Each structure stands twice: as C-alpha cells, then as structure tokens.
Amino acid sequence: MDPYKVLGLTLNQDGTVSRSSAMPFSSAFPNGESLPDSTATVSSKDVPLNPSHNTTVRLFLPNSLPPSKSLPLILYFHGGGFVLFHAASAPFHASCVHLAASVPAIVASVDYRLAPEHRLPAAFDDARDALRWAQSAVASDPWVRDFVDPTKFFLMGTSAGATICYHVALDLISSKLNLSPLRLSGLVLDQPYFGGIARTASELAFANDKILPLSANDLLWKLALPLGSDRDHEYCNVVAKEAKEVKFLPPCLVRGHNGDPLFDRQKVFVEMLKKVGVTVVAKMGSPGHHAVELFNSEKATEMATDVKNFVYGGAEIGTPGTRLENKL
C-alpha cells in the first residue's frame, strides 16, 4: 500500500508535496447558511490571522442569538495529520456550522500552516497567534465583542487539531501568557492524534484501516515532525515523557472510538491526565472509525451533544481525575 497514493500526495524534489485530495472547499456565508433538515442558520466569515504566514480564522456565528453576551468561544483546529486540509475544507466547515448551531457557540476555526512545507512546531506557533487573536477579538471583532462571554473560552481540535490544542495549552501554562479578559475553561480533544515508535495493539489490529492505515500514519508523522526526529519526539509521543505542565491543564473532554487505530494511545493519554489529577470527561469506546463524525450525521450529533454538555456543564463535569461515562 503506497501511503502517498492513499493520502493523495506527491513528493516534490524540494521536499514539498503536491496535494490531490478530492475534498472540496466551502465558501464562507456572511449572510447565513441553513443546516440540513433544520431551520437553524449559521453565518460565517474569514478574518486574517497572521498575513506574513497567510493564516486566517473562519468565524461561525449562530443566528439564533441569546439576549446577552453569553455564548462560549470555541477556538477550533481541524484535523489532517498536520499535512492535509484547511478550515475551508467542506467536512470541517460543515462540522463547525453544526457545532455553532448545536452547542450553541461562536466557533473560530484556525487555518494553520501545513507540513512538510512548514514542519512542527509551525502549527503550534500559529495556534499561539490564534490565542492572541482571540484575546484581541473580544474588543475588536463585532461578533465576538457583542455575543461572547469571555469566561467561556475553550480550545477544541479533531485528530491533529486536538494535538495542537494539547501542546498550545501546555505552552500557555509554561509561558504564563495572560489572556485576560478570556479565561480558558477547558479543552475538547476529539480523537487526538498521537504516536510512537512501539506499535500498539489497536494500530496493529487496524493496520489496513480505510481512513488511517499504518503506512499513511507513519508517513504523516515523517512529513510533520522536525527533520531528524522519530515518532518518540515529544510532539508525537506525549506520554513517553510527561510534561510538568500537564497537571495544571483545565478540564478536558477526550473522545475516542474503538475502531480507530489510535484508540489505545488515546486511552493511555486519558490515564496520564487522570494520574496527575486533571479533570477528565472521557467519552471513549463508542463504535466508529477515525474522524467518523465528518462522514456520519448521527456521530456528528453525538459529538455536538458531548461538546454542549461539557461546555455548559460547569461544576457538574466532575472532580479532578474523574472519568465520566467512560467505556474503557
């Protein structure tokens, strides 16, 4: 199985890749778009992030607005193994539309730089830019200024996007960056994308997975990690050497499916968080493959419900180290 063919990539002589993914793009809809089988509408717009890096943020605003500034702000990072896709890629655009309407929340989807043209930590640097953008948007962007409760600020990512969330949250703790008036209330880590040299049982069991076969998984890390690094690098194998900042993380919602090759790594990650006393809401073990919510409307609704319960759960999400509704 040629991993380049699986991923729709062609390696160029200069080390860049040409991407031939069939995934279409969605335009922003400043005047609103309707959700399938729903009367709800969501407006979206693109705003610049860092012009020197050609990065942007796509904002999603539910049109059924509360009477006061009470919406959460979810800073979202799409998946794609750090190599593929954009905030405008149709499945990720649709997922953010669904989240904005269903939670409800203002969702800010970050279009970060991709590897191998921009290897890690470039995506993490773009996430830091996005944090500073969110802080300034509380005063400068009318959607955020008029409708967001700055004490309800969440980082969320799917697959590689969840890995970005995790690393930027650790950096936020170590740097002691003041995000006032924003207050980071939690992380939503949907099927986080972790790796390592030693194979896990789930990786071997799903070596020929239709979404993330083992050969493609290895290639994505080869293209994304700093040159000369292997899959035990701290960006990839986050449990090999536990970062000292982990215990200071805010509450985390971690989601994983039992048909995902990465499922075993996600379970170990949840146990690491628990061990150091992080408040964990673990939604682990439901049927499904990696990124299933992008292709299955029932799973998309399930994810949105989990996010809604976490974001609005407040003190009810549990005490430090708690695993709620866990199917490990």
Automatic annotation (TrEMBL):
Entries under InterPro entries matching the protein: AB_hydrolase_3, AB_hydrolase_fold, Carboxylest/Gibb_receptor
Record domain Alpha/beta hydrolase fold-3: where: 74-290
GO molecular function ontology, one term from the record: hydrolase activity
Pfam families for the chain: Abhydrolase_3 (PF07859)
Gene3D superfamilies, per database record: alpha/beta hydrolase (3.40.50.1820)
The protein's name: Alpha/beta-Hydrolases superfamily protein
Upper classification of the organism: Eukaryota, Viridiplantae, Streptophyta, Embryophyta, Tracheophyta
